[in-house]
Write a structure and sequence with these properties.
Elements lengths: L2 H8 L4 E4 L5 E5 L2 E5 L12 H14 L4 H15 L12 H7 L7
Antiparallel strand pairs: 1-2, 2-3
Helix pairs in contact: 2-3
C-alpha cells in the first residue's frame, strides 16, 4: 500500500504531506496532487518544517484554498534552506506577494 493510500484511509478532510526536496503532496477533493519544491540551492534544512507550517498558518488566516496554502507553504520552506540557520531568510508575506504578483490574495 502506498503512503498516500494509507494516509487517505486514516484521515478525514484536508491532508498535506511534506516531501523535503521533492515538495509536498496534498489531498484535494479526494484526489492526491503533488507540488514540486521551489528550485533553490539548499544549504541548511534547519527550520524548513517550521517554515512550512508558518506558511500554512498564514494561508489559513488569509482564507486561501488548500492548493494555494500548499504552494505558499512550500515557497516559505524553500527560502528557509538557502543558508545557514533559517529564520533570517524567510520573507514576510508582503514580500512574497510582491514576488508572486499577488497570487496569495486568495
Amino acid at each position: 500500500m502506498a503512503v498516500h493510500d494509507a494516509v487517505a484511509e486514516r484521515t478525514d478532510g484536508q491532508v498535506v504531506l511534506t516531501l523535503g526536496a521533492a515538495g509536498c503532496a496534498f489531498r484535494d477533493q479526494g484526489a492526491w496532487r503533488h507540488l514540486p519544491a521551489e528550485p533553490v540551492a539548499a544549504t541548511d534544512c534547519t527550520g524548513a518544517g517550521d517554515s512550512f507550517v508558518a506558511g500554512t498558518i498564514a494561508g489559513v488566516l488569509r482564507g486561501l484554498p488548500l492548493a494555494a496554502r500548499a504552494r505558499l507553504s512550500g515557497i516559505v520552506a524553500s527560502y528557509a534552506v538557502t543558508g545557514p540557520g533559517s529564520y533570517p531568510r524567510i520573507p514576510t508575506l508582503a514580500e512574497l506577494e510582491r514576488l508572486d504578483g499577488g497570487f496569495f490574495h486568495g
